């Protein structure tokens, strides 16, 4: 019999709609019921494409005996972390404080008022000798302890909330903004963690580390690296190239259909958890574009082209926005949609060509995955050999579309869409693909029309025709950064359009400051001032799988000051720089995207004012040849003779009709 979740909009909640568990969605009804019945609350948090969330659901939440225990002793609440990252942040931090680690599924036991007292992540249904307590045993223990030792649990909850509040204190800013020494030391720390054998950072599991790579690529173009720290520059080159190449050749990249999975389960990038997230692919489009401009590796261009094709083919909504994710499972089996046997390939491609494809893509009788199946990787083939196999990849992709597909989470998130918009905008311009830029622009316009309310407030989620939930800090700031990317290139294909997007970005940042800033301090909260009141209102400094909203704000403020010469933007940027100076010295890995923005600002944001009939296509062609500082193209007086004027920051050169002179000054 369906439970309350069956009618919810969230795919993740719907996936639990047939559980025998008496689930509630997050809301006042569940909290009131807990207080009325004097029961503890179980808050279970996950997302639709999460492999281990599915495993625990199948093993525990579909089990009648276990569900009976849950219903008898607890008020059970299911939360989609992608819709409610605010709730997820608080309970995740609580579990990390208790256990030293976290992850999803996240299962937290709380007092009837929602304050947590214990919790964990995945729990098996029985004892498997792993040292993890079985879920039914834990349920019985917690229920019994709640009845016998309520006062002790009250003390635990009070201490946890106190620690959450204490960890949420404003960052103590340095007296001076961040300096070159701190930036160089941060980069040295980061490249020192590079895995020189396999690329990436650290050991398994391995994540794309997009923000870290963004910082290194931004720093690589600075005069400090080019003239004073060439050895570090060489190390940055090695780190970035080995990581991006290993990912592009590995199994974390979908060699048949394009796009990246969330992370690799091994250190070699061979076997991923197969879920594909919109945010990873938006961020990686931007990274591979920057890397292609610097290193001109044609493999990177292939990755960009194939990832854009996947986004357009599989992830784009008819309204112009983008869906959130693809599940790791199909037919209840992780990776089944993506893996192959030699026999399958020979049936599709023919014996000779199938054997050849297996050789190049590491597909063997033994297999590199489960049950003799292989996830395609491309360890040694040359780019020419890869290109010759394009036709066979297309045949395999067509065959793969005949398989039952992974579930697609069709909710559209303002923040994740904004990351995809920025990646598409950058790739479209620098690879001279105006149709990609048009896709980005259409998605940006869709957000403005559909996700906006009260002049310049934003919703976080659009699903099944309905907009929901107050936008979070990253919804506002990621969207502003995406609009600025559109604005910087709009004159290329839409003369006169840049001002519209600059103005929108200004309005959004004003709204952000009004609703998210912590009074006179440098801190920005993750939730707005009129958001639902939770156990604590989290301050948002740290980059994680996506940049923090505050890190993204650094990029926005830098661009807006260069565009408007409005002192409020530089004042706020300097203020944030003082805070990031302190953070970079302590945990540089925690704030790389902010450091990327500060380096970009130090290099200098460029604006090229094109007056009259200036040849913007020639300028685009020049800009696509090598890496440049962040650059905005602005056009005015299009009926006058061609004149260009370059400004770097707020310092402007004399107008000239010589495009070559502009390009020479634009170099780092």
Automatic annotation (TrEMBL):
CDD domains: SSP411 (cd02955). It holds the Pfam family Thioredox_DsbH. GO terms for biological process: carbohydrate metabolic process. Residues 2-164 form the Spermatogenesis-associated protein 20-like TRX domain. This is Spermatogenesis-associated protein 20-like TRX domain-containing protein. It comes from Candidatus Moanibacter tarae.
